[in-house]
Amino acid sequence: MRARAAAEERRIEPRLESTWRDMHTTSLPHWNLSTISHKIFETEKGLHDVRFELNSEAGLLDAPDLLWEQALAERLYDQVVAHFDVRRRTSLLNERLSHSMDYLQMLSEHVRHKYSRAGGDGG
Known about the structure:
This protein is 77% helix and 0% strand. The chain is mostly helical.
């Protein structure tokens, strides 16, 4: 359980950092608005994929059906999940993903506004 949470964090954290770096460099003056808009779209798709992966595995935190008839084993399973704080760690990753998605939405709105002011020529 702890290994799974740590693996998720090791997989997601670099992607989030990379996303932030990429978004900060997309404002380079030689990129046109169409290119920036496409980059934002691709990044949003990637973050949605990460969120799906994170949350689809979060359902695995519930005690497996096999343990339902074994009260002691089920309680031990729940204690292990609590001990390694897996739910909180998953929640924190979800919060970071939400913040990144909000940031991308803001950038997308800004690009859309600039694009409409530029007459749709992407420059």
